[in-house]
Each structure stands twice: as C-alpha cells, then as structure tokens.
C-alpha cells in the first residue's frame, strides 16, 4: 500500500487535525461510523428542512439507500443494535416493497429485506418481495426503453434505477437458486446501458433528456446519478457467479473507475456535473460517498489496484468527514433531484448518510485487511 499523501482536516463533532494515517486507524473509523449511524437513528423521522414536494415514506428509495448503507455497517459493527433498528423498520413496513409495482425505486427496500433474510433466515422476510418480483418476471413490462418525461417508468429508463433494482434481482437468484431472476436483470441492465452509457466518456447520462445536451460546453453527467450506477455495480458483482454476465459488469465497473478518478476535485469531492468541475465548485457528499464506496470496494475485492485508486478513496473520505457538522450531521448532500444543482453545509438527506456508511464500512474493511 502506498504512503499516504498529505495532512487532512477531519471534522467529527469538533474540528481536529489528523494526518492521513488517521484513515487507517480502526478506532477513529469506528467512532466516526458509530456517531453517524447513531445520529441518523436519532433523526430518523426528521425532514431535514427539505423544500421539495417529493413523497418520502420510510419504505421509499431515499430511506432504502440509507438502510443499505446502515446494514453494511451493522454487519461489521461491534454493537449489534443497528440490526435491531433495521428489523424494527422492516417490521413497521410489514416487509413490503413500496407501492409502484414495476418502478425500480419502489423495489430498493427489498435489498434490506434480503440482507436481513441472509442473516436471520426467516421466510416471512422474503414473501412479499418474492411475490412482487415473480409477478414482474412472469409479466414483464412492454413499455419502451425511454423515460419520455416520466411517462415510462416500468423499466430502468433512468440511471438511478441501476442501483435501486438490479442488486435485488441478482441476490434473489442466489437465494432462490432460480437463475431467471438474474437473467431478467441482466437483459434489462444491458438494455439500459445501451441506452444511457457514453462509451467514450465511460459515464452514464441520467436519462434520455441529457443525451446530446451540453452545459458550459460540456456533456452533462450528474455525479449522484453515476454514483448510483457505480455503487450498484459493486452490489451486483457481489452476487454474480463467474461467467459472461459477471464479466460484463466487471468491464463496466473498471471502465467507470478509471474515468471517475480523473474527475475528482483536488479537494476530494466529485463535482455535481462531472465534466464541469470548474463550474460546480460546491462540495457534494452523496455522489462522493457512492464513488468512495465503489472504489474502496473495488480495492478490497481485487478489481482495482491500490496504488492507482487508494489516493482517491483517501481524499474522498477526508472530504466527506470534513463536512460533518458539530451536531454530527453530514452536510452538503444535494437534495432529491435528477441533475447537477446545489448543496448546502447545513442540509442533508438519508441517502447521503447511506452512501457515507457504505463508504466508511468498506474503508473499515480495507483498514482491517491491511493491518493484519
């Protein structure tokens, strides 16, 4: 592992100066992740001062993304109370998916249920997810592969969907032993990639409305949108058996990783419009969190060389932790949206915390692996 590069300023409750070696201190990481997870549980039902009209039930995609990150921390945390929290959420939701039958966003919480099933092996944890996905499998949507101003949302016609649904289908194939779930997922994923992936830039357009459009003379690649895809690829690859399908995802993952490290700002965050970092100079922690998670996961799982990618993980993590407020909240999370926009130091969202916990958990594993 290469030497760490320079001193960084971390903020956790109060500002404190550490060297980058602190990234490799398990105690510091554990304290940071515990504090963030506890803050989120305490503020579970807050609205964070959001000013949009989006419905945000606790089985919807914003919370689902938080649960996915929380579960990854729960799996390695010394204190098992995080599983108690997640089980209580699942019970409150009656182990059901959100309401739109085909919509990828409304399948996202199923990833929590499958993770809990993996751990606790109770059949009721699977029943409603299996019912929904089996119906889709037997009655696939006939809508076209285009969003058309949100007219068509039954298929994965926007890039965020590639985080929300495909990992669920990949994991279901392993749990049930029925590869039809994986084959359905793969066919739909390829269709979305053929529609939205820029093979020159190795990045995804958020949806069809950004293809061929430029802002400030640059193509528009939304940071969090690509963060959804990149993090989702890691979640999918964890579930894939060796073979051509897995190789397809491996290629996408490594292509995106190589493109992303070139777009990270010198301050460690990824700009909200990835190709316009000189214009979008405000930090943003949700896209940065998902990229940091994916890169750390790639190192841990042998897809990415640490000499090339560890510095980006270090800078990403340092930037995110520098935006934890004195109250313990993760700031600079871009609000719910679908394009580059604004973020503020005193605004957060649950999916941003999910990205943070996922990234930190993977870094925690990285530290443990390299210290043995």
UniProtKB/TrEMBL annotation:
<dbReference type="InterPro" id="IPR052043">
    <property type="entry name" value="PolySaccharide_Degr_Enz"/>
</dbReference>
<dbReference type="Pfam" id="PF07470">
    <property type="entry name" value="Glyco_hydro_88"/>
</dbReference>
<feature type="signal peptide">
    <location>
        <begin position="1"/>
        <end position="21"/>
    </location>
</feature>
<dbReference type="InterPro" id="IPR010905">
    <property type="entry name" value="Glyco_hydro_88"/>
</dbReference>
<dbReference type="GO" id="GO:0005975">
    <property type="term" value="P:carbohydrate metabolic process"/>
</dbReference>
<dbReference type="GO" id="GO:0016787">
    <property type="term" value="F:hydrolase activity"/>
</dbReference>
<dbReference type="InterPro" id="IPR012341">
    <property type="entry name" value="6hp_glycosidase-like_sf"/>
</dbReference>
<keyword id="KW-0732">Signal</keyword>
<protein>
    <submittedName>
        <fullName>Rhamnogalacturonyl hydrolase YesR</fullName>
    </submittedName>
</protein>
<dbReference type="InterPro" id="IPR008928">
    <property type="entry name" value="6-hairpin_glycosidase_sf"/>
</dbReference>
<keyword id="KW-0378">Hydrolase</keyword>
């Amino acid at each position: 592992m290469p030497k760490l590069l320079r001193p960084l300023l971390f903020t956790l409750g109060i500002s404190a100066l550490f060297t980058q070696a602190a990234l490799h201190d398990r105690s510091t990481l554990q304290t940071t992740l515990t504090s963030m997870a506890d803050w989120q549980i305490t503020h579970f039902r807050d609205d964070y001062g959001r000013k949009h009209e989006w419905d945000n039930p606790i089985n919807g995609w914003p919370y689902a993304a938080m649960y996915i990150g929380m579960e990854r921390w729960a799996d390695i945390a010394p204190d098992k109370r995080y599983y108690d929290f997640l089980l209580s959420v699942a019970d409150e939701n009656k182990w059901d998916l959100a309401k739109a039958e085909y919509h990828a966003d409304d399948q996202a919480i199923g990833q929590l249920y499958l993770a809990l099933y993996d751990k606790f092996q109770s059949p009721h944890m699977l029943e409603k997810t299996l019912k929904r996905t089996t119906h889709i499998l037997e009655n696939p949507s006939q809508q076209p592969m285009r969003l058309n101003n949100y007219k068509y949302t039954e298929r994965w016609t926007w890039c965020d969907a590639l985080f929300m649904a495909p990992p669920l289908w990949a994991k279901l194939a392993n749990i049930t032993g029925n590869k039809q779930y994986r084959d359905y997922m793969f066919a739909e994923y390829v269709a979305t990639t053929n529609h939205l992936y820029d093979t020159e830039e190795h990045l995804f357009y958020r949806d069809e409305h950004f293809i061929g459009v430029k802002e400030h003379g640059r193509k528009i690649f939304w940071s969090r949108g690509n963060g959804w895809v990149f993090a989702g690829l890691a979640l999918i690859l964890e579930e894939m058996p060796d073979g051509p399908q897995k190789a397809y995802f491996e290629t996408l993952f490594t292509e995106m990783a190589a493109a992303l490290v070139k777009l990270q700002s010198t301050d460690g965050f990824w700009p909200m419009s990835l190709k316009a970092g000189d214009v979008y100079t405000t930090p943003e922690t949700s896209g940065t969190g998902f990229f940091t998670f994916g890169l750390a996961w790639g190192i841990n799982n042998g897809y990415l060389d640490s000499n090339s990618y560890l510095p980006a993980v270090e800078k990403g993590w340092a930037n995110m932790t520098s935006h934890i407020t004195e109250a313990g909240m993760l700031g600079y999370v871009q609000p719910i949206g679908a394009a580059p926009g604004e973020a503020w130091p005193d605004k957060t969202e649950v999916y941003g915390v999910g990205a943070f916990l996922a990234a930190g958990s993977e870094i925690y594993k990285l530290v443990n692996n390299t210290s043995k």
